Amino acid sequence: MIQLKQVHKYFHRDTDKEVHALDSISLDIEDGEFSVITGTSGCGKTTLLNAIGVLDRVDSGEIVIDSEDITTLDEEQRSALRLEKIGFVFQAYNLLPVLSVEENIGFIMRLRGFGEDVIAQRVKEVAGILEIDNRLKAMPLQLSGGQQQRVAVARAVAVKPALVLADEPTANLDSKNSEHLMRMMKSLNEIEKTTIVFASHDDYVVELSRRQIILRDGHVVSQ
Ligand SMILES: Nc1ncnc2c1ncn2[C@@H]1O[C@H](COP(=O)(O)OP(=O)(O)O)[C@@H](O)[C@H]1O
Ligand SMILES: [Mg+2]
Fold this sequence. Notes:
- By secondary structure, the protein is an alpha/beta fold.
- It has one domain (32-57, 73-222): Rossmann fold, CATH 3.40.50.
- The protein has helices at 45-52, 75-85, 101-111, 116-129, 145-157, 175-192, 203-208; strands at 2-12, 18-29, 34-38, 60-65, 68-69, 86-89, 163-167, 195-199, 211-216, 219-222.
- A 6-stranded mixed β-sheet has the order 6-7-8-3-9-10, sandwiched between helices.
- Helix 3 packs across helix 4 and helix 5 (145-157) packs parallel to helix 6 (175-192).
- It binds adenosine-5'-diphosphate (ADP) and magnesium ion.
- Magnesium ion binds at residues 45-46, 199.
């Protein structure tokens, strides 16, 4: 589904020093994968996830999503592609505090123009899988961190995106909630065949993933 071919990305610091954040990354991600990008802090995990998720541009190389080279798209095409195909989960849950749990979960479906009946049914369905169906009327800040992150996951997967990217989703959770979140995401991967790629060095994430892509200093050392 996604191919990266010799992708390079540099960051320029205020000093004359240049950081080679992605150093000739070539990688295939298949439909239905449950994979983790791992490696020590600063090795390039977030940069790689943001490149795959069409959030950031790279300096050279190709990134092909469903046979389309996304490096040639303009900003408008890039945001349309993001909205249509990619779901994001971040370390800080990034829920909208003024919307209820069910409104948060349905938020992207509403942006995409789905009908209210379809949204209501789908919100119930994903909330059931993620075990937050008894909190649909609550506001995000009334929930525990673990529950908030499951709402963020529900929102990301509600539109059935081709790919879900999760950057350190367990970083703010204790071990019990991390394990629970990972088991729920694994169920989603199995029940709905959602392709999920994590960036993490958390043991629970690495243990439960089916494939590990290990980065060091911006290149893949093992996969
Ligand atoms: N916006 C930025 N400006 C300058 N350097 C950056 C920026 N983002 C990341 N970097 C550098 O790129 C490298 C990879 O960072 P990152 O992808 O965030 O690593 P990780 O997510 O694995 O901790 C690091 O050396 C980091 O300091
Ligand atoms: Mg990171």
